[in-house]
C-alpha cells in the first residue's frame, strides 16, 4: 500500500510537467569542482531550450543542475530520497517530493522525462543510467535519448561494454551506440535537441500523447 501510494504521489506531482529531461550525477561533487559547473551549465541550457530539469534533488551534480535550471527561471524538480543520513532537498529545487523507495523514484524519472543527461557519478548514477538503458533496450520506453557528459569518464565504460559485453554477445551493437558520449553542456544539449526533434518528427503527437497518458494515469489512480 505504501508503495502504491508513493507511485500515486509521484505521478500526481509531475502530471502537469511539460517536456522535461532527467539529469543524473554524483551526490559527492563539490561546488568548486569543474564538474559542478558543467552541471549548472547543463541545467541552464535545458531550461533555455524549454525543458524542465528533473534530478534526485540531492547535493553535488544534482544540486548543480537544479541551480542552473532555477537561475535560468525554469522548472527545477527534485525527486528526493529518504536516507538514514538525511540531506534533504537542495535549495534550488522549485518542485520537490521525497520518496522512500528508490525503485519507485527511478520509474518516475523515466516516465516523466523525455531523455536523460548523465554526469559523472558512482553507483547511484550508474543504476539510473542502466535503468534507463534497459527500458530503452526492451522498448518499454521509446525515443529516450541518453547522453553521457565527460568523455574521459565514460569512454572506458563504453569500451568495456563493447569489448566484453558485445564480444560475448550479451548486448547488441545498437545498445552500445545508444549511449552518446559528449563533452560539456553545449554538446549535450545539441544531442538532446536533435533527438527530441527526431522523436517529434517520428511522432508529431508525441508530446501531446505523453501529456494525455500522464493525465490518464492520474485519473486511473485517483
Ligand atoms: C552525499 C550523499 C551520499 C548524499 C546522498 N543523497 C542523495 N540524495 C538524492 N539522490 C541521491 C543521493 N545519493 C544518490 N542519489 C541518486 O543517485 C545518483 C547519485 O548517486 P552516486 O553519488 O553517483 O552514487 C543521483 O542521480 C540520485 O538520483
From TrEMBL:
Ranges in a coiled coil: none
Q: What Pfam families is this protein classified in?
A: Lysine_decarbox (PF03641)
Give the catalysed reaction(s), semicolon-separated. 9-ribosyl-trans-zeatin 5'-phosphate + H2O = trans-zeatin + D-ribose 5-phosphate; N(6)-(dimethylallyl)adenosine 5'-phosphate + H2O = N(6)-dimethylallyladenine + D-ribose 5-phosphate
Cite the InterPro entries for this sequence: LOG, LOG_fam, LOG_family_nucleotidases
Q: Which top-level group of life is the source organism from?
A: Bacteria
Q: Which UniProt keywords apply?
A: Cytokinin biosynthesis, Hydrolase
Instruction: Write down the EC number.
Output: 3.2.2.n1
Q: Which family is this protein grouped under?
A: Belongs to the LOG family.
Q: What is this protein called?
A: Cytokinin riboside 5'-monophosphate phosphoribohydrolase
Amino acid at each position: 500500500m505504501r508503495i502504491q501510494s508513493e507511485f500515486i504521489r509521484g505521478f500526481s506531482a509531475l502530471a502537469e510537467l511539460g517536456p522535461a529531461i532527467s539529469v543524473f550525477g554524483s551526490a559527492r561533487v563539490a561546488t568548486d569542482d569543474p564538474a559542478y559547473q558543467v552541471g549548472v551549465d547543463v541545467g541552464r541550457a535545458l531550461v533555455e531550450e524549454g525543458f524542465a530539469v528533473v534530478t534526485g534533488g540531492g547535493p553535488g551534480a544534482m544540486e548543480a543542475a537544479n541551480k542552473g535550471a532555477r537561475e535560468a527561471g525554469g522548472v527545477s524538480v527534485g525527486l528526493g530520497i529518504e536516507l538514514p543520513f538525511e540531506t534533504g532537498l537542495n535549495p534550488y529545487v522549485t518542485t520537490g517530493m521525497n520518496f522512500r523507495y528508490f525503485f519507485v523514484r527511478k520509474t518516475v524519472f523515466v516516465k516523466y522525462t523525455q531523455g536523460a543527461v548523465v554526469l559523472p557519478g558512482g553507483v547511484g548514477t550508474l543504476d539510473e543510467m542502466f535503468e534507463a538503458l534497459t527500458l530503452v533496450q526492451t522498448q518499454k520506453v521509446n525515443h529516450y535519448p541518453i547522453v553521457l557528459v565527460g568523455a574521459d569518464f565514460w569512454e572506458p565504460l563504453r569500451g568495456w561494454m563493447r569489448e566484453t559485453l558485445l564480444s560475448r554477445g550479451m548486448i547488441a551493437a545498437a545498445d552500445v551506440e545508444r549511449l552518446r558520449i559528449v563533452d560539456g553542456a553545449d554538446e549535450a544539449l545539441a544531442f538532446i535537441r536533435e533527438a527530441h526533434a527526431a522523436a517529434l518528427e517520428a511522432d508529431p503527437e508525441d508530446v501531446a500523447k505523453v501529456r494525455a497518458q500522464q493525465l490518464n494515469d492520474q485519473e486511473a489512480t485517483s
